[in-house]
Specification:
single chain; 251 residues; Rossmann fold; alpha/beta
Length: 251
């Protein structure tokens, strides 16, 4: 007997009860903050490259990519390349000619070399420059031409102004049914002294950018069900599902 429907209902009910548990959210927040002090996200890798993400978000992205089946993933913020390698490995499993386009203002030589020599390199394109530079945006949009299902992940400079500029540059590339994922919205929930040497913080971060962005569009909605399942995520309110097609040609 196929019990898939019953299993899905069980998961849905458990997620609902989990959300309604008043003790769980404070515990999750306490654990998140405590582990952040110990650079928890820096401990993990994907196929040999540091991924600098929490396992919950890595698993969430796996689910989204398998469901959406994009033929292009755009990522701003390359760091050490683990996320690009992860996305590329998922596209490899899907088959087809899907690619990952990564943009970073500073692709360090040793990181670029390791990415270019990786077995997944054939599905990766790297662009060095600011993600909001018009020439860089034009190069990304050129690579997006002809692609049927596009996903965008924003994970570079975390100031509100920069993220808003990225949203203006790339949101219309996201195809209906796919996702625009804005990472590190959790900055808004962290103590004000969490980033003393960075230009972002409480009141000026990806979450505040997303809030302003969502007031200007009806193409995206927050995937609250996904967030409720995760409990712990660096992107609360940042998993945005595209529910309407873009007006006019995106590229």
């Amino acid at each position: 007997m196929d019990d898939s429907r019953q299993f899905a209902e069980m998961i849905g009910n458990s997620v609902r009860l989990q959300k309604e548990d008043p003790a769980l959210a404070p515990l999750a927040r306490e654990w998140f903050m405590a582990t952040s002090r110990h650079k928890y996200t820096y401990r993990f890798s994907w196929l040999g490259r540091p991924i600098i993400q929490r396992p919950q978000d890595i698993l969430a992205m796996q689910e989204l990519i398998w469901s959406v089946r994009p033929d292009l993933v755009v990522e701003t913020g390359i760091a050490r390349g683990g996320s690009m390698v992860f996305y590329a490995s998922m596209l490899e499993l899907l088959g087809g000619d899907g690619i990952v386009v990564g943009v970073d203002v500073d692709i360090r030589e040793h990181n670029g070399k390791a990415i270019r020599e990786h077995p997944m390199a054939g599905r990766i394109r790297m662009i060095q420059g600011s993600s909001v530079d018009p020439d860089v945006v034009a190069r990304v949009r050129e690579l997006a031409k002809g692609r049927k299902r596009i996903m965008v992940c924003l994970d570079s400079l975390h100031t509100e102004a920069h993220v808003l500029a990225e949203l203006a540059a790339y949101a219309d590339l996201v195809t209906e049914g796919s996702y625009l994922v804005v990472f590190d919205t959790v900055i808004e929930d962290m103590p004000e002294d969490s980033f003393p040497d960075r230009p972002w913080g409480v009141g000026d971060n990806p979450r505040t950018a997303v809030a302003k962005f969502l007031r200007t569009t009806d193409r995206f909605v927050v995937d609250e069900e996904l967030e409720n399942r995760l409990i712990v995520t660096v992107a609360p309110g940042g998993y945005l599902k595209c529910v309407k097609p873009a007006q006019g040609p995106a590229a």
